[in-house]
Amino acid sequence: MKDLFYYLIFPGFLFTGALGIFASWFDRKITARVQWRKGPPLLQPLYDLIKLLGKELILPANSSLWTFLVFPIVGLAASALASSIIWLAFLFPEKGFVGDVFVVIYLMGLPAISLIVASFASANPLASQGASREIKLLLSYELPFILAALVVLIKAQSIKLGGLIFYQAVNGLGIGSFSGAIAFIVALLCSQAKLGLVPFDMAEAETEIMAGAYIEFSGPLLAVFRLTKFMMLVAAPLFLVGLFLGNVAAGPGAFLLLILKYLAVVLLTVLIRNTNPRLRIDQAMKFFWGPVTLLAAVAVTLALFGK
Amino acid sequence: MIQRILFNSGLFKIDVLSSLVLLGVIFFTVLILLYSIGFMRGKPGRGQYYTYIILTSLASLAVCLTNNLVFLLVAWGFLGITLYLLIALAGPQAREAAKKTLIIVGGADALMVLAAAIIYCLTGTLEMDKIRISLSASSLLPVLAYLCLALACFAKAGAMPLHTWIPDCAENAPLPVTAFLPASLDKLLGIYLLARVSLDMFVMSRTMNMFLMLAGAFTIVAAVMMALIQHNMKRLLGYHAVSQVGYMVLGIGTGIPVGVAGGIFHMLNNAVYKSCLFLTAGSVEQRAKTSQLDALGGLSRLMPLTYISSLIASLSISGVPPFNGFISKWMVYQGLIGNWRLANGKWEMSVYLLCLVAAVFGSALTLASFLKLLHAVFLGQGEVLSKRQVREVSAWMWFPQLVLALLCIVFGIFAYQVPLKYFIGPAVGNNIEFFGLWAPALAAILLFVGMLAGLLIYCSGNIKQLSRRDKPYVGTEDIPAEARPTGTEFYRTVKEELGVLRGIYRKAEAGAFDIYHQAKDLIFGVTNFLRYLHNGVLPTYLVWCLLGMMGIFYLFLK
User: Fold this and answer.
1) Which of chain B's residues have a Cβ under 8 Å away from the Cβ of A100?
2) Are B262 and B329 in contact, with CB atoms under 8 Å apart?
3) Burial of B468 (0-12, 13-18, 19+ CB in 10 A)
4) Chain A residues with beta carbon closer than 8 angstroms to that of B449
5) Which of A151, B73, B96, B304 would be a feasible disulfide site paired with A303, CB 3.0-4.6 Å?
6) Are B450 and A73 within 8 A, CB to CB?
C-alpha cells in the first residue's frame, strides 16, 4: 500500500506531474524572457492539458488501433515509475525502491519506445519518418550517457541510486572533480536529446515534418503524451542531479535545496534550447558518437586514475 | 539395474545444469513439433523432416546426459549432420547454406576431437566429472585444449568468429528448423558445454575469462550492427541469434556467480524469445508468401495473435523491463560490476568497462533493429498486403507462439520466484549475490496501476466519438503509394553517412569478416597455385624434372 502511495501520490504520479507542469511553465517563462516577451501565466500548461482533454479524438484510418491507444499510457506509467524511483532515492537513500541505476536508465527509455511504437501504429509516413529519427537519436545519446553514468559508478563503487547519493554526502558532489565535471556536461547534452528539446528536436520538427511522431495524435491521447513529457522534464534533470549533485533530502530544507538544484539544471537545459538551432539527424549522430563520446571516454579514463 | 549400467559406469551423469538443459530440449521439441503440424502441412519431405527433428532431439538429450568425452563427441557430431540434412530439406537454394553450416560446425567438431585427445593426455581419463585442469599461462597444452573446446562451443552457439553459418541458415532453412536449432537448441547445448567446460572441467585463469568477455562483447555489438541494415526478416533475426550469444558468453566469462547465473539465465530466455520470433516470422512468411521487409507491412490488424507474440518477444529481446530479457542482461551487467572489486590494475578495469558499455549499448541497438522489424512487418502502412487476404495462422501455429510469449512475461515478472529459484540458482550453487536492485513484480504492478491511471485520464477526456476515423494527414494531400516508408531505410544514416562505419559495412557486405569466405579464398588460392603448376603441358613437367635433378645433384656433389 505504501508503495502505491509513493507511486501514485507522492513523489510519483501526482507530485511529479504537478512539478512537471511547473517546470514546463518555468521553461516557457524563461524562453519568453530570453526573447523579450512577457510569457504565459503559471497555470498555462495545465490549462493546455485540460483544453486538450476536451478536444475531439480522431483516429487515423488503417491504423493498428489497440497499439495506437495503449502505448501512450505505457510511456506515462513508465515515466512516473522512473521518477518515483529517483525521488525515493533522495528521500530514503538507505532503503531502495524497485530498481537501481540501470533500471532507471532502461525505464527512461520506455517513454521514447512507446512514442515510437504508437506512432508506427498510426500508419502515417511523416510519423514513421519522425519516429525513425527518434530511434536514431536514442541510439546516439545512449552511448555517451552510459559512459557518463559510469564515471559516477566507478567512483562510488555502487549501482544503487541511494548508494550514489550516500557517497556524495560523504565524499562531496560528483561534479566536484575533473572527470565528474566533464561527465556532467556530457550527461546534460544527452538529457537534452532525451527530452527532445532544441537542438535535438528533429523527431518533432514542426516546421519540417509537422510534429513528426505526434502528427496523428489528438485530444486525450495528445494530453497523455504531453503529461509524459512533463514528467520526463522532471525525471531526466533529476537523474542528473542524483548522479552529479546529489544530497540526502530528508528534511524540508534539504528538499528545497534539491528542488533548487533541479531547477538550476532545468535552467541550463532551457538556455541551451534557446541559443541553438535544430540539427539534422545525421549531424546529431556524428555529434554524439564523435566528440561527445570521446569527451565521455576521457572522463572515464580520468575517473580510472582517480581524478 | 538400468540405473547401475547407465549412471555407475561413468557413461552418464545428471546434475542440475544438465537437467535444466534437458527440460529445455524436451519443451522446445514439443512446441516445434506442434508448430510444424501447421507449418509443414502439404509440404514435400514431411517424413524426413519429422525424423530428423526427433533424431536431433535425441542426440541433444545424449549430449546433456553424457559424462564421457568420446560419447559427447559422437552425439555432438551427429547434431551437425542432422542440422545439415534439415537445412538441405528447404530445396536447392539452401544447398550452399547447408554446406557452409556443415563445414563450419564440422570443422569445430574436429577441434573438439583434438581437445579431447589433449585432455586424455593430460589427465588419463575421459570422464568429464573427474577432469579438473588448471589453466595457467606457463603451460601451453591446457590452454590449447580449452581454446579448442571454447571454439567448438562458439561454432555451435554462434559466437564470433564462427557465427557466419547462422544468418545464411536462417535465410534459407525452413523456419521451424531455424527456430528449433540455431535459435534454441544450439544455444542451449553450446552454452551448456561452455558452462560445463569453464566451470567444472577447467579452473579458469583471469586471462581466459577476459578472452571470453571480450569475445562476448565484440559479438554483441558487431552482430547487432549487421542486423540493423538487413532487408530480409529472417536474416535480420539470424544476426540477432548471433548477437545474443555475446551476452551468454560474457556472463559465463565474468566468472562470478551472479554473472554466470545471468549468462545461463540469458541462454534460457534467449531460447524462449528467439524461437518465438522465428515462429512468428514463419507464420508471416506462410501467410504473406515473402520475408522481404519491403514487401510487408500493416499485418497487426490481419494477424493479431502473431503480432502480440512478436511484440512481446521483441520487447523482451531488447531488454525492456519488466520482460525476461531485461533481468538476465541486468545480471550479466552486475557480473561485470562485481569484477571491478577484483580488478587487478587499470587495464583489467578498462576491459570490464569496455564490455559493460558494449553490452548496454548493444541492447539499445537491438531495440532499434526490432523497432524497424515491427514497423516493417506489423505496423506502418500496409495497403499492399490487405488486398492479398492475409489472415491469422491456424491454432497449431499461434498456440506455440503465445505460450512462448507468455513465458517471456512470466520469466520476467516472476524471475526470482520461478526460474532463478528452481532452475538457475541451484545450477550455480545458490550463492548469487546481487549488487543492484530490481523488483520486477512490484514494478509490473506499479506499471499496471500507472496504466490504469492513464486510462482514467483518457476517460476524463472527450472520447465519445471513438468511431471517428480519418485518413492519415500529410498536409491535406493523398499519400502516393510509392512514398510508403517500410523501415528498411531507417538506418541509412548509420550505414552510409558515418565515415568509419561506412567502410566497415562495405567490407562486411563483401564478406571480409566471414571466416568461411576467407578460408575458402585461402584454400582456393593454394589449389590455384598447384593447378597453375600442373598445367598438363609435358615440356613444363620436363623442365621441373630437370630443375629438380639439378638441385639434387648439386646437393650430393657439393
Assistant:
1) 436-438
2) yes
3) exposed
4) 4, 7-8, 77
5) A151
6) yes
Can you name the residues that pair with B12 across neighbouring β-strands? B66
Rounded to the nearest 5 percent, the helix, strand and coil shares of chain A are 75, 0, 25
pLDDT tens string for chain B (558 positions)? 666 666 666 778 888 888 888 889 999 999 989 888 888 888 888 888 899 999 999 999 988 888 888 889 999 999 888 888 888 888 888 888 888 888 888 888 999 999 999 988 888 888 888 888 887 766 888 888 888 989 999 888 888 888 888 888 888 888 888 888 888 888 888 889 998 888 888 888 888 888 889 999 999 988 888 888 888 888 888 899 889 999 999 999 888 888 889 999 999 999 999 989 999 998 888 888 878 877 787 788 888 899 999 999 999 999 898 899 999 999 999 888 888 877 777 888 888 889 999 999 999 999 999 998 988 888 877 665 555 567 777 888 888 899 999 999 999 898 888 777 888 888 777 777 888 888 888 899 999 999 898 888 888 877 766 667 777 777 666 666 666 777 777 777 777 777 777 878 777 777 777 778 888 888 899 998 888 878 788 888 899 899 999 999 999 987
Q: Determine the residue of chain A that is closest to B434 in CA distance.
A: A159
pLDDT per position as a tens digit, B26-77:
999 999 898 888 888 888 888 888 999 999 999 999 888 888 888 899 999 9
Nearest partner of B179 among B305, B277, B268, B90, judged by Cα: B277
**Backbone dihedral angles phi then psi of residue B68, each to the nearest 5 degrees:** -115, 130
Using CB atoms, pick whichever of A53, A63, A107 lies closest to residue B462: A53
Chain B residues close to A89, C-beta within 8 Å = none
- Do B252 and B200 contact (CB within 8 A), yes or no? no
CB contact under 8 Å between B447 and A305, yes or no, is no
The complex's ipTM works out to 0.92
- Closest residue in A to B469 (Cα–Cα): A59
Cβ neighbours for B101, distance < 8 A, ≥ 6 positions apart:
B80, B83, B84, B87, B165, B168, B169
Q: Which residue of A has its CA nearest to B481?
A: A125
CB contact under 8 A, A136 and B471: no
User: Which residue in the block uniquely carries the three cell numbers 529459484?
Assistant: B421
Helix (H, G, I), strand (E, B) or coil at A210: coil
Number of other residues whose CB lies within 10 A of the CB of residue A54 = 12
CA distance B335 to B435: 9
**Residues in chain A, how many?**
307
Is B335:B283 a contact under the CB 8 Å cutoff?
no
CB pairs under 8 A between A and B: 261
| Record: contact A57-B461, CB cut-off 8 A | yes
pLDDT in the model for residue B129: 80
Q: Which residues of A touch B353 (CB under 8 A)?
A: 150, 154, 300, 304
What residue ranges do the domains of chain B occupy? 2-429, 515-557
Say if strands B133-134 and A59-60 run parallel, antiparallel, or are unpaired: unpaired
Domain-wise residue ranges, chain A: 2-304
